[in-house]
Amino acid sequence: MSGRLRERRRERAAGDEGFTIVEAVVSMVLLMVLSTVVLAAVVSNLRVADQVRSRTTATGLATREVAEARALLDAGSISVSELASATATTNPTPLDGGTVGEDLTVAGTDFTVQRTIELATGSQGQALCGTGGTGSTTLNGSDSLVVRIAVSVTWSNRMSYAPVEVVELVPLPESLSLANGGVLVVVQVVDPTSGGAGVEGAKVELSVKRSNGNGFTLQAGTTDANGCVVARMTSVDGYTYTAVATKSGYVSQSWTTSASSTLGSLSYRAAVSWTTISYAQAGAVQVRLTNAEGTAAATDAEAAGLSLTLLCSSSGTAASGGGWTTTLTAATLDVRVWPCLYSAYVGDEVPASMTQVQVEPPVSENDVTTIWVRPGYGIVSGLTAPVVPDPDESGSAEESDDPDAEPDGATDPETGTDAGTGEDAEPGEDGGTGTDASPGTGTDPGSEGADDPSGGTGGTAEAGG
User: Fold this and answer.
1) Is-above-0.90 flag for pTM?
2) pLDDT, tens digit, for every residue of 78-92?
3) Parallel, antiparallel, or unpaired: how do β-strands 283-289 and 369-374 relate?
4) Which residue from 103, 205, 213, 252 has the fewest beta carbons nearer than 10 Å?
């Protein structure tokens, strides 16, 4: 009986061996990998769902802002001047209990709403500043003026998702119509040296003149990021208009601190008049004159009265064509110029070939392009080292500082040594001149080796006659 029991226990133990440690570890690793994949999928789905909710909320806020803008237009709360300025406002319509300008918080997410209300052309739905061009036009039919409402909404956890943008064109309200007279002046200030980019922050004025010369100035506004400003004019007949732009550190192509463009006479029958002004950040240049040899800087006295000409390789500037010429009063000239590739020369004669230097707008306040100009040569890289004569090539030694030094070729009367060179005088040479002694010159004709009465050392005397 007990034997059978023991046998059954052994059989049961043999059939219930369980998992090994390796099997258990492999199972845990597979479970962790599967859990990671599932968890990542769950997190991604939650993120997408959160973005969908945020995007839906943003779309609702954008639609709400467009409706608010239309209500302002219908109520006459926005003037043509405000439409012309096309200024973007941030969070202009707060939520209940909120403040204008603060972010709109919905379900823990912060939303930022930007709204722009501006005049546009109906055919393209394009803002007036975006159309560019020059001259005047009457906008009728599909090209009639409309109001463009543009709203953009972003949110705090948007990551790489695009913002919600809504653009709506609405008819120009009757209260804002130009039918009773007036014209919109669109001025765009651009920098041709930067690919025609708009100049932001330029102050634009309209100079108004009557035929008798009397006139006044109107403030058009400050250019936006596109370099544009729009102004509404009334009672325009009989006047001539000129748009003038000013901004610190900028110059016109004529090198003046302000740039202008003439609009001419405007008519109320033309709804919109465009003009473009070229304006660029000035390049700071210091022109320095060398002497005629190019070895040293010229003095003010040497430079005074000379004419200097700067030549710009671009057309339409003050230095284009024949160049910009001025009479120097000093050897150094500081000038602010239109960015360009420049050459320069002094005087009336143009050098056969001239070096050119690119003048760029300064990176910092003290950034100045220095140009050295040598008379007869134009722009040079700098001063050249003065040429010092070679004593061996000139055939003469440098002068001695000793005032009592003997001249070259003299022979020391005591030693018979050349005083200038230190070399021994040759035998038979005259003590004073270093030449062979001749009969009757003080050498004893009857004796050999007799002393020369003049102090020189005689050689073998030739017999006197």
Assistant:
1) no
2) 876 677 666 788 999
3) parallel
4) 213
